Amino acid sequence: MLDSIQIGMTGLLGYSKGLRVIANNTTNLNTPGYKTATLQFTDLFYANTMLAGGGREQLGYGVGTAGTTLDFRPGDLRQTGNAFDLGLDGDGLFILRDGDGRVRYTRAGQFDFDESGVLVSRNDGRKVVGVDAAGNRVDLSLAGMRASAGKATASARFTGNLSSTVTEQTVGSVKIHDSLGQEHTLSAKFTSTDTVTPGSWKVELFDGTTSVGTSEIVFVDGRPRADATKLVFTYAPAGRDAQQLTLDFGSDVTSFASGNLSTLAMTSQDGYAPGTLSKATFDEKGTLVATYTNGQTAKGASLLLARYPSIDAIEDLGGNEYGEANGMAWETGRAGEGAFGTVRAGVLEVSNVDLSREFSDLVVMQRGYQASSQVISTANDMLQELFKVIGK
């Protein structure tokens, strides 16, 4: 009977551990990136006895536990509205590094940029590990990305019709940028030289009243001649370096009779003014993308992701973070490459706890605990009866 009481005690101990695991799972129902744990039960050793008739008798010594296993099924991705909350659609974990170089891994992408512009975990301030174009591990930083320099206009594109029945036409509002991104408004004056060369026009570019230069465009059957669609000028704004400026008439420009009405105008140019950072986010490949007030974008380093070789290589460290276990090396790579999933910004992965399964397991643990208690009570009653017999 004493052995039976001891066996019942192993059941109480094992099922109480199972209850603790279930309690931890259910209380982390809303913890971002949390992965469900499951307790493994094993039977304990056996006493083997050879019987007189040649048979063998095996008597067990109860139940034991062999640790917990993590269920790394992905949780749902839910919108948060925070551009620096990141989720992974597929395999992989984010890599975090503390000041001493220790590395941890997480699926809970609760990140933000600190006061120095470095992406860190909001939970513990660990830096998020990135990778540059050369494959070097770097911090994901906004340093050097807070402003966008201006760009000088190299080409200005025109569209519309230059009436062939007028002798002179001026196109204003030719807005271009110099080498520092400052905007200048030029004008282009078209003077017909049809009496010299049929379909030809002298084109003179002006900065205010100052002539920048002249060139010629020739139309054949109402279309610019193929070798005269791009007119090149050298423009030197006051106090700025000279720049090459091309007026492009290569598409959607015509010269047909339309009375005194000409619709020729500049529609686009490739320069822009300086800009400041207006938005930062991550694309699906985990690359830092900065958007500026001048409409330009720039890309920085990318998130470095990690994958475990097997579930035995994961150690749960708490705080939504994991470490390497059993000396197994993890694989690293970029999002969207190989077996790694893609990055989604503005979402968080929620816990993968299945509440209905946890409640079902809870009933099993309760019944097991009650049964073990009953075994102890019954063995104790039988032991008391034995003591009564011996006492007589």
UniProtKB/TrEMBL annotation:
Residues 89-128 form the Flagellar hook protein FlgE/F/G-like D1 domain. Keywords: Bacterial flagellum, Cell projection, Cilium, Flagellum. SUPFAM superfamilies: Flagellar hook protein flgE (SSF117143). Its main location: other. Signal peptide: none annotated. It comes from the Bacteria. Residues 345-386 form the Flagellar basal-body/hook protein C-terminal domain. Coiled coil: none annotated. It is found in: Bacterial flagellum basal body. InterPro entries: Falgellar_hook_FlgE_sf (IPR037058), Flagellar_FlgE/F/G (IPR020013), Flg_bb/hook_C_dom (IPR010930), FlgE/F/G-like (IPR037925), LlgE_F_G-like_D1 (IPR053967). Pfam families: Flg_bbr_C, LlgE_F_G_D1. PANTHER family: FLAGELLAR BASAL-BODY ROD PROTEIN FLGG, FLAGELLAR PROTEIN. Belongs to the flagella basal body rod proteins family. This is Flagellar hook-basal body complex protein. It comes from Ramlibacter pallidus.
